[in-house]
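Researcher: Let's do a round of design. I'm pasting the structure tokens now; please hold your answer until I've finished.
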């Protein structure tokens, strides 16, 4: 059983410092590579699905969160206000109020809908010290968030599209959902009023789940304060279940913010907000990936994708040339030479690197590489150019497969 906190430190991915504070990890260079690659993957997937990206501030006036309902219903999880120039400012607990303001910043037409607005943005939760742990529960969160502004008739289809994005991402990351949960309100919760809108949102989410062919179970007491949601659940090696990805349908905030668009009839109509997150928080996603793969990330996500191992000093110049060729193809490669120890020790040290290329005197002379894969397979001795091309193709294709037959 893998613990992401131990692995993260052993592999030099992230760490913490008491002077920074609990629940505020920092990312080391290899961890930053994983995070950046994951974020770029999400942005690319969203662009291909018709999303447009924005940036919004991590601060907002107290009045903003009073309007959205967060101050009344979510205050216990928010940081206290800061007094700035006679105004109370808050670190945001969510991105949706900011995106609602961006939507209403100008007149919108029905021709723009569905308008898919995405952001990888920071948000802050005042988590209790006792629940903090590694990357799974933190106080500063980088969230893969998006809000789709659409008509009620488009909402179920947009929610189903979000579920498809989530499914594809999980396949590329080599992880799986343990179950899908339709999270409904329960007794005693802090939920906004409007039973008819809650029923309507729940019906639309059920339509999306049915259209996606996803088995699910309805659970009361797990809804967001403003509406029901689909929670995509994952389970860690210890059997603990948590939510990674979500899809929500929200009639509440469009009403509170007075959102409108001009319909085909020329009248003003209220849109629906579909909230969705493909990989949830980057922190929790990386924690789960570490524990799922034991640090052996899919090739496209690995901090180092190729290590070149010259047998002797005479092959080091050629090894560095191979690394330059790999880098030119967009691969993350490095040399591990004789100064780092015996060949066997270097191979063991690079056990989590997807691709290893041993370079002896004959290989250096003939432009060849003796190829080893992380899983123990040895595809043989290949021309360097062919090997690099095949690795580049596997990385570009993403997914979890290390090698494909020629």
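Researcher: That's everything. Go ahead.
Model: Designed sequence:
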């Amino acid at each position: 059983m893998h613990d992401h906190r131990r692995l993260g430190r052993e592999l030099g991915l992230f760490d913490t410092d008491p002077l920074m504070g609990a629940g505020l990890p920092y990312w080391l260079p290899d961890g930053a590579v994983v995070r950046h690659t994951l974020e770029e993957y999400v942005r690319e997937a969203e662009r291909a699905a018709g999303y447009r990206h924005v940036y919004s501030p991590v601060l907002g006036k107290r009045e903003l969160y009073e309007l959205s309902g967060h101050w009344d219903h979510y205050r216990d999880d928010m940081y206290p206000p800061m007094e700035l120039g006679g105004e109370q400012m808050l670190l945001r607990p969510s991105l949706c109020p900011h995106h609602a303001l961006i939507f209403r910043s100008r007149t919108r037409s029905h021709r723009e809908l569905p308008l898919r607005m995405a952001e990888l943005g920071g948000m802050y939760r005042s988590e209790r010290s006792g629940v903090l742990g590694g990357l799974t529960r933190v106080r500063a969160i980088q969230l893969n968030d998006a809000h789709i502004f659409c008509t009620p008739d488009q909402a179920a289809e947009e929610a189903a599209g979000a579920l498809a994005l989530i499914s594809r991402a999980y396949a590329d990351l080599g992880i799986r959902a343990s179950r899908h949960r339709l999270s409904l309100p329960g007794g005693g919760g802090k939920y906004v009023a409007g039973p008819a809108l809650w029923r309507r949102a729940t019906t639309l989410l059920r339509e999306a789940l049915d259209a996606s062919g996803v088995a699910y179970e309805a659970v009361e007491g797990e809804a967001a304060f403003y509406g029901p949601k689909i929670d995509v659940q994952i389970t860690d090696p210890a059997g603990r279940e948590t939510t990674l990805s979500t899809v929500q349908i929200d009639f509440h905030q469009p009403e509170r913010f007075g959102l409108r668009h001009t319909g085909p009839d020329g009248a003003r109509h209220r849109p629906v907000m579909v909230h969705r997150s493909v990989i949830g928080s980057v922190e929790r996603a990386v924690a789960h990936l570490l524990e799922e793969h034991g640090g052996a990330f899919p090739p496209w996500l690995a901090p180092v994708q190729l290590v070149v191992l010259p047998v002797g000093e005479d092959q080091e110049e050629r090894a560095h040339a191979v690394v330059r060729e790999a880098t030119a193809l967009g691969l993350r490669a490095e040399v591990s030479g004789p100064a780092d120890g015996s060949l066997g020790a270097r191979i063991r040290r690079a056990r989590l690197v997807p691709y290893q290329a041993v370079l002896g005197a004959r290989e250096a002379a003939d432009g060849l590489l003796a190829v080893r894969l992380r899983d123990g397979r040895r595809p043989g001795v290949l021309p360097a150019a062919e090997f690099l091309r095949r690795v580049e193709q596997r990385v570009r294709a993403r997914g979890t497969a290390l090698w494909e037959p020629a």
